[in-house]
């Protein structure tokens, strides 16, 4: 029996915009596999050093791509990461860039213990739409979508929208 084809979805955006909350809920409701790149890197020690300025490990992008290749080829994966241009274009059927109001983002990041340059740089990244521009440069513009992610109502709307998209994609491709 042939397995159903299932889409690959990228959830991206500045840290603190709600990718993980949305991704986990989406996986629960669709049965797709949720992969948080930060967790994957930690579990597999997929690092290439340490950034003392931002006080975090440096991702080894090649190792991450190698680690995910087979799963992405099979399909049915939701990838959650704050960067997007490291992944091959062929992997994703749709890309969602979550966006958050700067004052909310500042509070969210502060509550996570971000401070100084790390806090300022992430808020500036959001102000200048850095991740959105990265996504449009890395993928076909027609598959890149921005979603507001400020309130629980936004989360519900985004979830509904992505669920509808996923159901339609499965109908069209099976």
TrEMBL record:
Membrane spanning residue stretches: none
Region described as NMPbind: 36-59
Cellular compartment(s): Cytoplasm; Nucleus, Nucleoplasm; Nucleus, Cajal body
Amino acids binding ATP: 16, 18-21, 112
InterPro entries the record matches: Adenyl_kinase_AK6, P-loop_NTPase
Biological process per Gene Ontology, one example term: rRNA processing
UniProt KW rRNA processing keyword: yes
Catalytic reaction annotation: ATP + H2O = ADP + phosphate + H(+); AMP + ATP = 2 ADP
Entries under HAMAP family matching the protein: Adenylate_kinase_AK6 (MF_00039)
Self-association state and partner proteins as the record states: Monomer and homodimer. Interacts with small ribosomal subunit protein uS11. Not a structural component of 43S pre-ribosomes, but transiently interacts with them by binding to uS11. Interacts with COIL (via C-terminus).
Name of this chain's protein: Adenylate kinase isoenzyme 6
Organism of derivation: Salarias fasciatus
Gene: AK6
